[in-house]
From TrEMBL:
Gene3D superfamilies: 3.40.47.10. This is Hydroxymethylglutaryl-CoA synthase. It comes from the Bacteria. InterPro entries: HMG_CoA_synt_C_dom, HMG_CoA_synth_N, HMG_CoA_synthase_prok, Thiolase-like. The keyword Transcription does not apply. Residues 3-164 form the Hydroxymethylglutaryl-coenzyme A synthase N-terminal domain.
Length: 386
């Protein structure tokens, strides 16, 4: 049975800051961001937008009413949870009006969680071929004003509908995973922002990639020459490029081809920033919507990495007619976001919800987005659908 991605959608907040402006405000050469990180802009999420609203917005863009009657599992991969107990998938299930007899769960392992969700979705469809599974990768990467990681922040969500006989990509059964108990990036419950060992984390990203790819080759017999393109986890675009170069140095011909596709696959990532679990799938969407070199049956290689660390390499093949299920004007939509100066970015992105003695929020800002957090009442998050 062929199982894979039938639809894919994306949502970003309506605010953005130019990294050239941020560099000027921090007295840093803008080329450090533009060339050193290969990043240009950063999505900025207001306090009324979180992983629930962004995830619901990404999914609503691709789902029909019929889909909502057929989905029987909702999986959200995230490391930006809004509740230690209740899954974001439960909130999203309700906001979207998906039929009630569905399983809704949240998965966590840093930036890897949504990839695990994709594998679980495949297993579910293999058992129940008429089912549909909604997999959402939704995250907000936030490191603090003037922090080392500030230019690699971001916010957004990618939604994928997983089905039998998919119309975009068939996922192959060639997955290879690796786990290492390391502390390269982590987020204690008592900390507002993550703790990062930056140099160690980038080393582990690359080493996990090279060792897992070696094992993948031994298991499958595939080489880089078998792939038309590669999508990697993109904490910032330069990191993904370095990873590609690390596994491609022994095959210059394949590396040249894959590097061309890589630059098509980071068009959106460069304009959005890091969205943790969703970064690799945003790269896939960027590849599909910006490459003119791809064709049906082409095979795409994936490298998913979540600090801590778990990684996975797998592949998928494009389906005939996949272009018909994409959004060709997405770049124009991204250009319509409200551009913020640095002062407004600092105010909006780092605003915190104030609660009174009953655990209820002081009035939140107005938000005309399709989905928004309207208030917290007795410690309960209340969302609305426009």
């Amino acid at each position: 049975m062929k199982i894979g991605i039938d639809k894919i959608g994306f949502a970003a907040p309506d605010y953005v800051v130019d990294l050239a402006d941020l560099a000027a405000a921090r007295n840093i050469d803008p080329n450090k961001y533009k060339l050193g990180l290969l990043q240009s802009e950063m999505a900025v999420s207001p306090v009324t937008q979180d992983i629930v609203t962004l995830g619901a917005r990404a999914a609503q863009a691709i789902l029909t009413d019929l889909d909502k009657t057929q989905i029987d599992m909702v999986i959200v991969g995230t490391e930006s949870s809004v509740d230690q107990s209740k899954a974001a998938a439960v909130f999203i299930h309700g906001l979207l009006g998906i039929q009630p007899f569905a399983r809704s769960i949240e998965m966590k392992e840093a930036c890897y969680g949504a990839t695990a969700g994709l594998s679980l979705a495949k297993s579910h469809i293999a058992q129940f071929p008429d089912s549909k599974v909604l997999v959402i990768a939704s995250d907000i990467a936030k490191y603090g004003i003037a922090s080392g990681g500030e230019p690699t922040q971001g916010a957004g969500a990618v939604a994928m509908l997983v089905t039998a006989n998919p119309r975009i990509m068939v996922l192959n059964n060639d997955n290879v995973c690796q786990t290492r108990d390391i502390m390269d990036f982590w987020r204690p419950n008592y900390d507002k922002y993550p703790r990062i060992d930056g140099r160690f984390s980038t080393e582990q990203y690359t080493n996990c990639l090279t060792t897992t790819f070696d094992h993948y080759q031994q298991k499958t017999g595939k080489t880089l020459a078998d792939f038309a393109a590669m999508c990697l986890h993109i904490p910032f675009s330069k990191q993904g490029l370095k990873g590609l170069q690390a596994i491609g140095k022994k095959d210059p011909e394949s590396l040249e081809r894959l590097t061309e596709r890589f630059h098509e696959a980071i068009v959106y990532n460069k304009l959005v920033g890091n969205i943790y679990t969703g970064s690799i799938f945003l790269s896939l969407l960027s590849l599909l919507e910006n490459s003119r070199a791809l064709k049906p049956a082409d095979q795409v290689l994936f490298y998913s990495y979540g600090s801590g660390a778990v990684c996975e390499i797998f592949s998928g093949n494009l389906v005939e007619g996949y272009q018909d299920y994409l959004q060709p004007d997405r770049l124009e939509v991204l250009k319509q976001r409200t551009r913020l100066n640095v002062s407004d970015y600092e105010r909006i992105f780092f605003e915190e919800i104030q609660l009174d003695e009953t655990g209820s929020s002081i009035q939140l800002p107005e938000d005309s987005s399709p989905f928004a957090l309207t208030k917290i009442e007795n410690h309960q998050r209340i969302y609305r659908k426009a």
